[in-house]
Amino acid sequence: MNIGFIPIDNRPVCYTLVKNITEIDDSINLFIPPRKLLGDLTKYADTAKIFEWIKTLPKLDAFIISLDTIAYGGLIPSRRCPDTFEEIKSRILKFKEILKQKEAKIYAFSSIMRISNNNINEEEKKYWAEFGKKIFEYSFEYCKTGTASADLIPEEILEDYLATRKRNFEINKIYLEWQKEGFFDTLIFSKDDCAEYGFNVQEAQKLEELGGFTKTGADEIPLTLLARAIPSELKIAPVFLEPDSKNLISNYEDVSIENSVKGQLELAKCEVTDEKNADILLYVNNFAERQGEIVMKIPTEPFQGTWNTPEKPYMIADVRFANGGDNNLVKQILEKPVDENFFGYSAWNTSANTLGSLICAAKIKFAAKKYNHNAFLKLQMTRLIDDWAYQANCRQKLLKPDTEEIKNLIEPYKLQVQNFLKTSYNMNYKYPWNRLFEVEIEFI
Prior knowledge:
By secondary structure, the chain is α/β, with parallel strands linked by helices. It has helices spanning 16-22, 47-55, 67-71, 77-80, 85-100, 128-145, 155-181, 199-209, 221-229, 257-267, 327-333, 351-367, 373-390, 403-421, and strands at residues 2-6, 29-31, 62-66, 105-112, 186-191, 214-216, 235-240, 271-272, 280-285, 292-293, 314-318, 321-322, 342-346, 427-430, 440-443.
């Protein structure tokens, strides 16, 4: 199967993760742009060279596309890009003509511009450092009540922000027209970092009224679309470790964890079923009162039960904490070596991130025509080291990115994971965006 894939940007979870997952099946040929052509924290994607790269591709069965990369240069540039509506429209129309010639099924998504509730401008325009929280509060109150005071926000800043939102919303409406023409097999509008009210929530509602499909999440959606493109029937039964709390809502999301799970499964074209009829059990380590977050120092009760290895094929979505595994659960999981029923673990960032990536890998493993067990073990090594060892433990001991210190800190955790997976690897660690938020694991 030939699959084209244009990521959101060049982060490991957006670029190398899809390669790690597709390598589980040697019958999948993945075509992905050279990493240097994609955007990062400050650089925009080179769309002209990406267009030339597309022209060189062989016949594809499916093409998974982050439309933000094409329109704005990436997900983060979608909030910063200075180009006018007409300039962006011209670019995406050219892209459409190039894609028409490829005759592939197109699975695409475009983001609804987020509104982060803080004064951190690392991924926003410069003025977010002073006015980000005020803009969020204005957006929240205006959309909740129909009126709000903007006295604390300079007029030119609010005008710029609202103009950027309007431009992106109008671009999304163009994609919606393409969908109605039958251009896309699947088109998703992603809701990133949602609150109960806000301009982004209003825009999602308007797109839905116009016939669009919106989905909470962002970085994992290309992987969920990849799973959707895999032609395989798969029955999955969610099993919540806190069944009485599955109606609670995760951080950065606007739907219950139960609906988040169902939404991810349905978008991945998996059938939701009961435990008796399932091909794979999806264990969800959900939270009892509220989702915790180790880095942000939001506490929650860790897993208090006893983990018994299932006798059926299973995978584990560890979402009790956002952005990091639950030590109480993982330590129990690692007590017994892995068996053939294990289909994966993930605790990557948000609940949607965790679920989308986990389900994608499990579906590719289940449907693999040429299964590569070593690739699957490498993927699990990466997830356990990144999501559990690094995010839940080692990251808290670092003041800044340090490739040597992190190697020493991770080593005892690495030994536990290797014993669990019954394999060993030599690895290095990098900080591709020079920040603690993400680490890249490199096999050597």
